[in-house]
Amino acid sequence: MTRYLLIAVFVLIGAGRSISGQFDPDGIFLTWKDDPATTMVIDFHTQDDALREPVVDYRIYGEDPWNTASGDTRPFPYTDRIIHRVHLSNLEPASLYEFRFGDDSRIYRFRTMPADPSKGTVRFATGGDTRHRKDWMDRTNRVAMEYDLDFIAWGGDLAYADGMEERVYRWIEWFDSIKETLIDDDGRVVPIIAGIGNHEVRNHYYTRHEGYEQTDAWRKKLAPYYYTLFAFPGQPGYGTLDFGSYLSIILLDTDHSNPIDGIQTEWLHQALEKRKGVKHLFPIYHVTAFPSHRNYEAPFQRRIREHWVPLFEQYNIRVAFENHDHTYKRTHPIRDGKVSEDGVVYIGDGAWGVRTRDVHSVDETWYLKRAESARHAIIVTLHGNECDMVMVDEDGDVIDRFRYMLD
Ligand SMILES: [Fe+2]
Q1: Burial category of 176 from C-beta neighbours within 10 Å (exposed 0-12, middle 13-18, buried 19 and up)
Q2: Most exposed residue of 21, 121, 184, 193, measured as fewest CB within 10 angstroms of its CB?
Q3: pTM for this structure?
Q4: For position 60, what pLDDT does the model report?
């Protein structure tokens, strides 16, 4: 009898149902593709036998009735999971919404950004290299969640699956970590902006694939998970997200599924030109231009300094976020290859949930201001012209601070 009861419970859970009887999807992932004040992209994952439609009910918290939006589905590569993707639009800015996946579902929440974010406070966490071990990822997630985040932006090396079928379990763990630790006690899901790193890509770099062409088909062949699991940036693997004319995030691809130079650099130039009036603009990418662990003269690092750094300097970027080295670092402001008060500060270096590495000596490395082997999150708070960053390690201790004020 007990055995039958257990089987019944497993069957219910297997169909995405919690023991309480409410439907709860296997994975939930929120992101933006358009205006964060009026849109939201909701992904939810089910097993293919759960017989759910890609439909989301949503309403402003506490208001009746529910609105319903439908989307489309795609298979989660190399699994029985289905990714349901629903784009919500025409939302009210600066509002708390609740949403569900049918009337038998657990209810979650999200928050839209203000239409004019310059009037309030915007806070996000950034970092990268998120999952060598799920418990490390969970831990930094929990530390970051203490800060009431509007969103998280990660700069690549997410699950470490390298585009390989046999490592799909790493993505499952990655989404489990998000569901377990990046939803607050009230059910509010924190949106995530996910950039590409070498560990999203088969053999890590497009240069290692004979016959590579800079096409959607090739990029998806190299990074089958990345281009399926995330609505943003989608093809071609780099993109911008604009929060009015107050904040822009630019995600870039450091030679993984696109060459740094050529089409992408030309696109970056145009993107920066179009956003000359934006107050706070942050490029986020994977490989470091100014490494705290790796070799400064290595080819990918040199290519970023050759093609992108001059553009960052030309357009007076204040801070660029780098990853990939599995350390914490902050550089001096840099312009024209030397320390300069009006230069760009590079902050990173990708140690959210990975084994850390040794750092170069700060005293003997001309560009380094701070470097440390510590898992961490970078918490960025924008308030008017002010940008305040606090870097917290996995214990929640502050390991560095940085602040700038626009003129
Ligand atoms: Fe990396």
Answers
A1: middle
A2: 21
A3: 0.95
A4: 98
